[in-house]
Design brief:
Layout lengths: L6 H9 L7 E5 L2 H4 L18 H4 L2 H6 L1 H16 L5 H13 L3 E5 L5 H4 L5 E3 L2 E8 L5 E3 L18 E5 L10 H11 L2 E5 L10 H8 L10 E6 L11 E4 L2 H12 L3
The structure holds ligand BJW.
The site of ligand BJW has 33 residues, from helix 2.
Length: about 260
């Protein structure tokens, strides 16, 4: 069933873009759903058939590295078949309008924002395209080529792991800090396609909302783009509910950047 474009909410959201604001964007799996990348927490989601602890924790990898590589190789193969959708493209256009007044922090590991032309991107949870050697620690961009189920480092012969942030692991040094710094300064935070339950990424929303309580700038405006209300919808200024591949391009049109 097609649903009508939430135009009243989009117009309210667009009103906040007058005067070249500083914009932080936080994206999650939903922004890539219309490209054909499954989300995590839907009933037919990415974890389907696997326990999170088995495929997205360091303990799971230590127990059965081949199973984890099978899971990530299947995802690499899927991403090789898909392309950015109009939602990714709209965010790249917004960056082109705003330049260094724009920053995009993504929880996604599919690389589709970069494929769409976004440059000011922080990959909070790593990248499906990169491997990391457990011995020499070298991080390599292997694109989306098919890897063995127990791939070996071409430099030193050590075992490779996906360069992904699993549960209980720290985010890459500097990346979260850069996002948090921008969250303290931005005028608008756009939250797209995330259930906003995974920390520290979801903490960006708290920073933008609460920074005034700690002597920082007053709270920024928070706009949520999702298919449906989430855990943070009560905290946002405008909720735009619909597929982000349709609503984000419409927002760009309304603010004159489409
Ligand atoms: C659409 C749409 C359409 C669909 N249009 N919308 C503080 C409080 C509580 C817990 C913690 C805390 N701090 C740390 C934790 C623990 C943990 C955590 O957050 N747990 C919670 C689940 C409770 N965090 C960590 O462990 C993090 N590390 C850390 O904190 O280190 C410090 C530490 C060190 C030592 C010990 C303890 C702590 C690391 C988190 C790493 C997360 N990694 C994953 C998997 C790897 C990436 C991969 O393989 O791809 O990242 S988990 C998984 O969830 C993945 C995602 O990036 C992440 C977020 O999911 P996302 O993107 O929100 O997807 P969904 O499916 O949940 O939602 C999709 C949304 O899209 C839905 O809302 C749909 O409606 C919507 N949608 N179609 C618009 N067309």
């Amino acid at each position: 069933m097609t649903r009508p474009m939430p135009d009243a909410e989009l117009r309210r959201a667009a009103d906040y873009f007058k005067g070249s604001p500083r914009v932080l964007v936080l994206t999650g799996a939903g922004v890539s759903a219309e490209s054909g990348v499954p989300t995590f927490r839907a009933s037919d989601g990415l974890w389907e058939g696997h326990r999170i602890e088995d495929v997205a924790t360091p303990d799971g990898f230590a127990r059965d590295p081949a199973l984890v590589w099978q899971f990530y190789n299947a995802r690499r193969a899927n991403v090789a078949l898909v392309s950015p959708n109009p939602g990714h493209v709209a965010l790249a256009r917004l960056e082109a309008e705003l330049g260094d007044r724009f920053l995009l922090a993504t929880q996604n590991v599919d690389g589709l924002h970069l494929d769409a032309g976004s440059k000011r991107v922080l990959e909070l949870h790593g990248s499906l395209r990169r491997t990391r050697c457990l011995s020499c620690k070298v991080v390599a961009d292997r694109g989306l080529e098919v890897l063995a189920n127990r791939p070996i480092c071409p430099a030193c012969g050590g075992f490779l792991r996906p360069d992904i942030v699993w549960f209980h692991e720290m985010l890459p040094p500097g990346v979260m800090e850069a996002a948090q710094k921008f969250a303290l300064q931005c005028d608008i935070l756009i939250v797209v396609g995330t259930s906003a339950v995974v920390y520290p990424a979801a903490g960006l929303i708290d920073i933008v909302r609460d920074r005034g309580d700690y002597g920082g700038r007053p709270a920024g405006t928070i706009l949520e783009f999702n298919l449906e209300p989430t855990a943070v919808s009560d905290l946002v200024d405008v909720g735009v509910f619909g597929p982000s591949g349709q609503t984000l391009p419409r927002l760009l049109e309304l603010i004159g950047g489409g």
